[in-house]
Write a structure and sequence with these properties.
With 173 residues, the protein is α+β, with helices and mostly antiparallel strands. The chain is 33% helix and 28% strand. 34% of the residues are buried.
């Protein structure tokens, strides 16, 4: 399948991180419209909104030179989620963000993929700081941030009042 972006391919011990492809849309739509983790946070959206979100992710690569990678488990060759860098209009800084599809949680995929993205951001993009905006109730994402060496500064994200700002050091893993 052809990538819809300028994303490089990154690999880890268990994962391949690649740019979005057309065939990724159904998994992404299912996650955004019905995943229990999205429902728990009150963040599910419609299929049409998911489509726009998917296109926004592709646009990030063309506009910023970064975006969400599709995370594929090497063993099964199935997408398990998305991890990457985003910066929407009006956001104060570049966010390192992740979300895993149903059944992929609890296996360390988000942490493993995010380490690869941090290394790429530091070495290839020259970034010296990343942020994650994590809902105060999202303890699983907070745990990933801690494993990545991030700490919260206690402030709230200006664009998302329920989210705390987590600051990532760009030290190597």
């Amino acid at each position: 399948m052809q990538s819809l972006s300028t994303a490089p391919m990154l690999t880890t011990q268990r994962l391949v991180l690649r740019g979005p492809e057309r065939d990724d849309l159904p998994d992404f739509t299912r996650f955004m419209t019905s995943a229990l983790s999205m429902e728990a946070q009150g963040e599910t959206i419609t299929a049409e909104q998911a489509w726009f979100g998917f296109l926004s992710g592709i646009g990030h690569w063309h506009w910023h030179g970064f975006g969400f990678f599709t995370v594929v488990e090497q063993q099964t060759e199935r997408p398990v989620g998305r991890v990457g860098l985003i910066k929407h209009l009006g956001w104060p800084d570049i966010e390192l963000a992740w979300h895993l599809f149903e059944g992929a949680e609890g296996k360390g995929f988000a942490t493993e993929a995010a380490w690869a993205v941090k290394k790429w951001a530091r070495e290839d993009l020259g970034l010296d700081r990343l942020y994650s905006y994590i809902d105060t109730q999202n303890t699983r994402s907070q745990a990933v941030a801690k494993r990545l060496g991030a700490v919260t500064d206690g402030t709230r994200a200006p664009h998302e009042p329920e989210a705390e700002v987590w600051v990532h050091s760009m030290d190597s893993h």
